[in-house]
Design goal:
disordered N terminus; 517 residues; seven-stranded antiparallel sheet; alpha+beta
Length: 517
């Protein structure tokens, strides 16, 4: 009796097939972040019969057994490069290795390694039909994050930044089925074309409708949109951003603003689906699942099999966004497989939480108090709520929550010199304190080469003998100063009114305080 029973159990197990394996994956993922390294998203896709053929991440290994490099960085001081791998097999990125290698200079991300073994690495995008090139490379320090309690860095795509591989192995072509997902920063976007990750043309040109199949994130309405004002997860299928069967509007594709956003796209012969969810918790929603778009050229598809990140298929590079991890698969993944991948993602423990308060250590939340008496000792550096100007104003326990948030900053490693600091707005993620024509503003990296230097300040002993002064990295005779309640970089004496020597030492000295927000 025992042998027939075992045979029946074996048949039942085999009949359950993928579902049983996926259930095991869900249990593993649900066990908590301490278990996240035991199984990666690509292990789940493999169990579902749709293996990864490209797997990119700067934050963690995407296979439980992966121990190779995640990405490569290059430092500005001597152009030396270094591969950054996981702390342990299947684990999280070794951010400390990046910090050490780039100390005293800046670094860019030069390669995103493919963990699938197919060799589909992403490197600097070449020129294309829409814009010149080669494209810019991402600042390695501009997207810090915590994953599973470990510090890591994402890929911060400013306009003009892009990665590509036009000579891939195993990526879907023609009407072959494929799937993909990416984790994006849902608060970092614009309406420029096009912040994409996925399948594109192999010649960096627009070769016609249906020659792409890539995830898009942003609030561009020119080629299609979802409900609300955006941003939306859509599919860039070339010459159209699709959220449903029609070329235009799909009311079921919602505006999304999750700090960490899971975006999923899959397509096969006359079928495709678009899904998304919060990468920190919960499951996936299906925004569209059905037939291919009813416009000419999209059924059947004509995919070419290149891979892009941060740009459109023809190298359109006016978009911005942040990428943490993503994969592409062979075959059309089941919803069950994707649900299991989402469970693994939420278990990984993505967070943007700060590492402390009241210090100039990167990751700490602070407020900066003016020291000039008698006018300003209760005044703090803050951004103006009506525009992007930076000012000082009185802030105390009775101030509004908005005023307190406006006066709170997150210390980051200096974008132009990692031994100095940059200040990110706590309530406007991705916007940094930078000078422009010597005045201080909040600004998102616009892709111009000067941004990182304009946003980097080197702490020194307070010029008045009190607190800390912040020296501009690209104008070393000028320091962060308040003058007539407006913030500037200013020298001690000069032709500008804000360079006045009167109270300069006090105006350029700040107390690093506990954060108001």
């Amino acid at each position: 009796m025992i042998k027939p029973l075992m045979q029946r159990l074996r048949r039942a197990f085999l009949a359950a097939g993928t579902t049983t394996v996926l259930a095991a994956g869900l249990l593993t993922a649900a066990a908590g972040t301490s278990q996240a390294a035991t199984q990666g998203p690509c292990d789940i896709y493999l169990a579902g019969g749709t293996p990864c053929v490209a797997a990119h991440s700067t934050t963690r290994a995407l296979y439980g057994a992966y121990n190779g490099p995640l990405y490569q960085i290059r430092r500005a001081s001597d152009s030396a490069t270094r591969d950054i791998g996981p702390l342990s097999t299947g684990g999280y990125a070794d951010a400390a290795a990046q910090d050490s290698f780039c100390a005293g200079t800046s670094c860019v991300i030069t390669v995103l390694y493919d963990q699938s073994g197919k060799g589909n690495h992403l490197t600097q995008a070449p020129a294309g039909g829409a814009a010149g090139g080669p494209d810019n490379l991402a600042n390695a320090f501009e997207a810090p994050v915590t994953v599973g309690g470990h510090k890591a860095y994402g890929v911060y795509v400013a306009p003009g930044t892009g990665y590509r591989n036009n000579h891939t192995n195993g990526i879907a072509t023609g009407d072959q089925p494929e799937g993909m997902y990416a984790i994006f920063d849902g608060t970092h976007f614009n309406d420029g074309c096009c912040f994409d990750y996925g399948n594109a043309e192999t010649n960096s040109l627009d070769t016609g409708n249906g020659h792409m199949e890539a995830l898009y994130f942003g609030n561009n309405k020119a080629w299609g949109s979802g409900s609300g004002n955006g941003p939306w997860v859509m599919a860039d299928l070339e010459n159209g951003l699709f959220s449903g069967v029609n070329r235009g509007f799909n009311a079921n594709d919602p505006s999304v603003d999750n700090r960490f956003l899971t975006a999923m796209l899959k397509g096969g012969p006359n079928q495709w689906a678009l899904r998304g969810g919060d990468a920190q918790s919960g499951g996936l929603s299906t925004f569209y699942s059905g037939a291919r778009p009813n416009a000419t050229g999209y059924n059947p598809m004509h995919k070419e099999g290149a891979i892009i990140l941060g740009i459109g298929g023809d190298n359109s590079k006016w978009a911005q966004g942040t990428f943490y991890e993503g994969v592409m698969t062979q075959g059309y993944p089941s919803d069950a497989t994707e649900n299991a991948v989402q469970a693994n993602i939420t278990a990984a423990g993505y967070t943007s939480g700060s590492t402390g308060t009241g210090t100039l250590t990167p990751g700490s939340r602070i407020s900066l108090r003016a020291t000039t008496a008698p006018c300003c000792t209760s005044h703090y550096l803050r951004h103006d709520d009506a525009d992007t100007k930076v000012v000082i104003s009185g802030t105390d326990s009775s101030s509004s929550a908005t005023a307190k948030a406006d006066a709170t900053w997150i210390v980051r490693a200096g974008l132009a010199n990692s031994s100095c600091v940059s200040f990110e707005s706590a309530d406007r993620p991705g916007q940094f304190l930078r000078h422009y024509n010597y005045e201080l503003y909040l600004d998102v990296d616009n892709g111009a080469g000067a941004f990182a230097q304009d946003a980097t300040f080197c702490p020194t002993a307070g010029n008045s003998g009190t607190g800390t002064s912040f020296q501009s990295v690209n104008f070393p005779t000028k320091y962060l100063r308040h003058y007539n309640y407006t913030a500037y970089i200013a020298s001690n004496g000069g032709t500008n009114s804000w360079d006045s020597s009167a109270s300069w030492a006090a105006d350029t000295s700040w107390l690093v305080a506990q954060p108001w927000g």
